[in-house]
Batch of 2 targets.
Target 1
Amino acid sequence: MKPFRYCPRCQKPLNVVEERLLDCSCGFHFYINPAPCSLAVLTNAHKEILFVVRGRAPRKGYLDLPGGFVEYQESAEQGIRRELTEEIGVVPNALQYFGSYPDRYLYNGIRYHVLSSAFSGILSAREAAQVRAADDISGYEWHPRIKLPMSRFAFPSMKKIFEDFLSTRG
Ligand SMILES: [Zn+2]
């Protein structure tokens, strides 16, 4: 389903010009651009990777990386620090950007396009012990990098994220 079917300016039905562009006879155009997200691949001293369990739709119960939508007037870096604080209660000192990943996010019957900025970081033993599940996640799990639980991944882009992460930080 398209995110909008009627013109927000004049309320007439929007025309689909191409997959990413809707327009209206009044001159209004709407580009279906991706929404920015930030996420983090966090490792502990044993080189295990932190996954969070999604507590809400979409993909409730599946494994995700901590992170979420960047809010307006926030940078990707500020977004990931806020999301980590909200979801797991811990933010590592250094977070390093390593790539951006397009994906789709089906929410309330509407397919959104997202573009996630991925960061990596290391949690000290003390920080790792402080991790707790909060906000929109219902739990967390550590998994060794050689045995990632791919069948439980919430989103297809996670496979590519780990390919890149492991090729540069293996
Ligand atoms: Zn219009």
Note: The chain has two domains: 1-32, 35-169.
Target 2
Amino acid sequence: MYSMYALFGRTPDASRAPSYRKRHRAAGYAFLILLLLISYLCIDFAVGARVEPSPRASLHMLLAFVVTGLLIVKISFLRLFRQFYDQAKTMGTVIGILTFALVGVSAGYYLAVSRLGLDKTMDRSANYSFRGPLLEVKLTGLPSERIRTDSRSIERGLIMFESRCANCHDAHSARTIIGPGLQRILKNQKLPVSGHPATAESIRFQLKQPAGRMPSFAYLSPDEVDDLIAYLNTL
Ligand code: HEC
């Protein structure tokens, strides 16, 4: 934006125009590449998370769509529909301001609530890892996740499993009743249906936002879920 402002809004010095143009074009390509890359990651993230986006995430998405649309129209004005060339200037400014808002509601918000990134518990993206070459987003566990191993937790987990899960899940085989058998559920590499890594965090996620025909268990307390996971870990 600055290079174009300098070019159109200030500089009487025509000799510098090509250099401003060049800078603007380089910044434009960098912007486009970043936009495509980040959009790809965000879409992958949203699909992987299978969650209805929060109000803030919705606003972020809306801004991203508007910025992308404006950018396409602006480039078409510059390359194809030159009669509209003048409007490209205004659009550039609007794209710049909307991008500022776009980054503000997500990265800005994150930096603010996590005290500039120092508070790692805010970083839910720690649940995800990137794998090349297509930068697949996968749920993983929080690195420090500990699973309870004391016999009382396991016993409470067993009782809960019998009453809430056993109708649909066989604990002692991989046979499907309504849901898949859960034998070795946390010892295998991946969960049977979603293919998410077999971690406590993935199970938590499944209980909160289950896929397919499994009902949600979002009402269980974190303590109850920990017991349930302690039991699943013994299978
Ligand atoms: C009404 C039946 C039903 C109940 C009750 C139920 N589930 Fe499920 N569960 C399913 C179905 C169906 C699937 C397969 C989901 C799909 O189609 O993606 C599933 C999948 C799963 C998976 C595999 C998820 C994956 O990502 O592969 C786990 C783990 C699981 N359930 C755990 C539980 C636990 C723990 C409970 C008890 C708190 C429970 N389920 C209760 C039906 C049920």
Note: The helical segments are 2-10, 17-49, 55-79, 85-113, 151-164, 200-208, 222-232.
